[in-house]
Specification:
heterodimer, A: alpha/beta, Rossmann fold, nine-stranded mixed β-sheet, 13 helices, B: mainly alpha, 0% strand
Chain lengths: 382, 122
């Protein structure tokens, strides 16, 4: 990573800020590669055997083991360090953004935009987003501080790029967007959508990659935060890619029936809820044209494939990384939900991650190669 | 002189995430000390990185100013070197945790049992 901004809206970081961000990234990597396996050993070599000896039986579920882990200083330290490292990351990025926020707000004022921005002063973010600051990001997706504010967009853009360590397409952070279209092209090699909607777009990381494959199409994008969307709009305009951003809830939009040829979302569904998910799929069905497709990308992990430590680690995500729907998303039967909603030709499977989607590719349907190498795709046709 | 981030505004607030706080299992002191140690680790990393830059720039130019440091871009070799010394800091500062893990791995109990039995009996 260097000090240059790849797009004019990206908050710049000076020498020491880059050092700080990289140090925190390395600390998180250290936690994951060196400390996590140690805590797994604590479970497997001490806590689980002691449980069995004490209770005279196997644990009924991972929660029983987790309760014993909670008494272990090693596990307590791990919980604390994970949260602290995450908080330090947001603090580093947040401080960097705050010192240049006036500059960013000025840069976000776009004359004669090719796309558009529509915010709703009466909009209320749904409770499953509002109740906690997801990923411990202070201000959450929808925090907005003034009519010209872009703070949360700037924080999320730089934070996500730093956190991903270049694995999702460097500063553009858009490999997931390319992968969505790669799946679309694997299933429908000749598709030429005229109207596209990206749901839960945040700052447009995936949105712009998607839009760029179809320069003649009209691309729309929705999310819940005005400040986030204002940043997204400025980012897209300064990159010369027209997108129509609006502040909406994917469960219930103001688009007309039968509007879109393609609806996408990129790692959004796992941050909704058990109740919201069917609403979102119903909404997709309503606003898709007959024959139109929806393509949702999700994290390639399934709860049933995780061992006890994997599940305990997942509990951390829920309780302290403020991802309340994590478990729900990893147990969701997406295929059934799509079919029950009324979608045809439903497919749920793994697509190879790619930086360039090719029409007619055969990169769908094999086993998962792991996070960042494969993504879980959920697609169907109206 | 480039101000460190956060120095400009003495009234700058600390942003905290909304959500259930991690319980202090052993009292706040240990958890907060850990957080301070982690922050100190990062501060040391930043300091070291700036020194590293001074050395490289000085070697290359034989005389330099702040603008040279700000304009400097680490190449692949420098990035790899920096990852190396960051790992060193992690290993040093969190050595106690690594020691705990190593204790779990090692089956040395039998080795010292006999000796300690004598000690306990004495």
């Amino acid at each position: 990573m260097d000090a240059h901004r790849p797009h004019p809206m990206m908050p710049e970081s000076n020498h020491d800020e880059i050092a700080e961000q990289l140090a925190i990234v390395d600390m998180k990597a250290f936690m994951f590669s060196k400390v996590d396996p140690g805590v797994r050993k604590l479970l497997e070599k001490k806590v689980a055997p002691e449980f069995k000896k004490r209770e005279g039986r196997d644990p009924r579920n991972h929660q029983e083991l987790r309760k014993d882990m909670e008494k272990e200083p090693g596990y307590q330290a791990w919980l604390n360090m994970n949260a602290v490292a995450q908080d330090m990351m947001w603090d580093a990025v947040g401080t960097c953004v705050d010192r240049q926020l006036d500059d960013l707000k000025a840069k976000a004022k776009i004359e004669n935009p090719k796309g558009s921005l529509r915010v709703d002063p009466n909009f209320k973010a749904p409770r499953y987003i509002d109740a906690q600051d997801i990923h411990r990001m202070p201000g959450n997706y929808h925090g907005t501080y003034g009519d010209d504010d872009v703070r949360q967009g700037a924080v999320f853009d730089r934070g996500a790029v730093v956190y991903q360590m270049g694995r999702n397409g460097g500063y553009m952070n858009d490999i997931r967007g390319h992968t969505i279209i790669s799946h679309y092209f694997a299933r429908w090699p000749d598709a030429q959508p005229k109207k596209i909607l990206d749901m839960g777009c945040t700052v447009g990381h995936s949105t712009l990659a998607i839009a760029n494959y179809f320069p003649e199409a009209e691309t729309h994008a929705i999310d819940v935060g005005a400040g986030m969307l204002r940043y997204a709009h400025a980012r897209a305009e300064r990159l010369g890619i027209p997108v129509h951003f609006s502040q909406q809830n994917a469960e219930c939009t103001d688009f007309e029936d039968n509007t879109f040829d393609l609806i996408t979302s990129s790692a959004v569904l796992h941050e909704t809820s058990g109740k919201a998910l069917p609403n979102i799929f119903n909404e997709c069905l309503r606003i898709l044209k007959p024959g139109g497709a929806m393509v949702h990308l999700e994290v390639p992990a399934r709860l049933e494939e995780l061992d006890d430590w994997g599940k305990i680690r997942g509990d951390y995500e829920i309780q302290y990384n403020y991802e309340p729907f994590w478990k729900g998303a990893l147990t969701q039967d997406y295929e059934k939900l799509c079919r029950d909603t009324g979608f045809k030709d439903v497919e749920v499977g793994y697509q190879d991650a790619t930086a360039k989607a090719e029409r007619g590719n055969t990169q769908f349907g094999g086993p998962s190669k792991g996070v960042h190498r494969s993504w879980l795709m959920i697609s169907g046709v109206k | 002189m480039v101000a460190a981030p956060g120095m400009e505004d003495p009234k700058a607030k600390v942003w905290i995430p909304k959500g259930r706080p991690i319980p202090f299992h052993d009292g706040p002191t240990n958890d907060q000390l850990m957080a301070m140690v982690m922050a100190l680790t990062v501060e040391v990393s930043i300091l070291r990185e700036r020194l590293d830059t001074h050395e490289r720039v000085s070697e290359a130019k034989g005389g330099f100013g702040t603008a040279d440091v700000e304009a400097y871009n680490a190449d692949d070799e420098a990035l790899a070197y920096r990852t190396g010394f960051r790992n060193r800091i992690m290993h040093k500062v969190f050595r106690t945790l690594r020691a705990e893990m190593a204790r779990l791995e090692a089956d040395t109990e039998e080795d010292y049992d006999e000796i300690m039995k004598e000690f306990d009996a004495a």
